Amino acid sequence: MKSVFLIGAFLCTGFVVMAQNKMTLKQAIELGIKNNINVQQSDLLMQKAGITLNQSRQNMLPNLNASANEGINYGRSIDPFTNAFIDQKVGYANYGANSNVLLFNGFSLHNEIKSNKTGYEASKMELQQAKDNLTINIILAYLQVLSAEDVLQQSQEQVLVTQKQVDRLGVLNQSGAILPSDYYDLKGQLANDQIAIVDNKANLETMKLNLTQLLNIPYDKNLEVERIPEENFNVNYAGTPDSIYQTALQQFAQVKATKLRTESAEQNIRAVKGQLFPTLSFGGSINTNYSSVATRDYFVNSTENPSSNYVTVNGLQYPVYVKQDNYQSKKINYGDQLNNNLFYTINLGLTVPLFNASRTRNQIKLAKLDLKNYELVEQNTKTQLQQSIERAYVNLTSSSDKYKLLQSQVSSFAESFRTAEIRFNAGAITSVDYLIAKNNLNRAQSNLIIAKYDFVLREKVLDYYDGKALW
């Protein structure tokens, strides 16, 4: 049943939480990026920019439209076949298709494509920036879990040490070999150590909760994270703020994004300016129609019929016969009408913009203001980046120095506590002196754990700016 539960948890949360299969930092980052709403929204914005780019490219293609119209006229109307007035029911139909292609518009479309292409590249960089920002936050939460685990382990070890002394002093106190105050001082210290375990367990669960919420997965108290190898704790960081800044200018996604936005704004200005030029287009159309009253006369025969004229012969009148051609009217069928009524047009159009309430010129002014804004954003991004790198480097240096000093302090207090424990066991010092030495060591060990992970975080921040792998 436990295996079934774990498989179900994997399907629901995207990872397996098992004692022998701990979550790695890489898995946490990948899961967080997959589930993060801000990253998904940035991805949607990138997709929208891609669609906009494709549409601007397709605007270069000819358009093609078809139309069909059918109806019935009642009463006096115009026969669509003869254009004569008639007074009867007429069924009619019109069909047509037209196409138009833009030949020139001041390169407005070309520059619009360039602007949208650059904007699409910028959106890709902004997506990467969203992933990078999330990665840093996940690393921080991950390290906080590790730090809380180490602090908890250290407090549990201290309980064992104190419990050992309480057990020893309990036997001596029963026999009256020590002062009762020594025994009760150690029992009080044991309670303090046990309270520290409770507090540290709560802190660990809080850190796990923070991590799972950042990964957008359900909280699981059985979550375990993989330890970071000790060789990653390199206190001698290579690199200077200037070298890191120069690298960040070339690789940092946010810097690339702001630069691309500036380039896109420049190309957009040229695209808007293109609207001031004449537009040349070429087009054509084909149309036909049908009328239900359209007829055609067909020849039947010729006959000789007497006319109103006559001739007189010998005083007698004889009628004059004339030859008459006889025709029969028949409706023209549907297909023949559509075929006979086909007509085509070809046109070359030139549109010269003379006045449009200064709309285009104001759009150019707005585009220039957008460019100026993006230039300021780009400049501010670089300034903040340099300041952040300098601040991160100072923090790393301070954290490294503190980490080294705490290592030395822990070593000194460990030796002091070892000596104090020997003397206390021999009855040479009081419980007060023993507890002072013990608490000094406990405090130094806790500070060392916190400083160690603080240093790793500072190092990862600089690696982030330097374009290095974060796991």
What are the main properties of this structure?
single chain; 471 residues; alpha+beta; Outer membrane efflux proteins (OEP); four-stranded antiparallel sheet; two-stranded antiparallel ribbon; elongated; disordered N terminus
Shape: elongated
* CATH third-level topology of the largest domain: Outer membrane efflux proteins (OEP)
**What would you say the CATH architecture of the largest domain is?**
Up-down Bundle
Output mean pLDDT.
Answer: 88
Q: Main β-sheet, in a few words? A: 4 strands, antiparallel
Number of domains: 2
- Ranges where pLDDT stays below 50 over 5 or more residues in a row are 1-20
| Adjacency order of strands in the biggest sheet | 1-4-5-8
Describe this structure as you would to a colleague.
The chain is of the alpha+beta class. The protein folds into 2 domains: 23-61 and 105-277 and 354-465, Outer membrane efflux proteins (OEP) (Up-down Bundle), CATH 1.20.1600; 299-327, no CATH class. Helix content is 61%, strand content 19%. The strands form 3 sheets. It has a 4-stranded antiparallel beta sheet with strand order 1-4-5-8, with helices on one face. Strands 2-3 form a two-stranded antiparallel sheet. Residues 1-20 have low confidence and may be disordered.
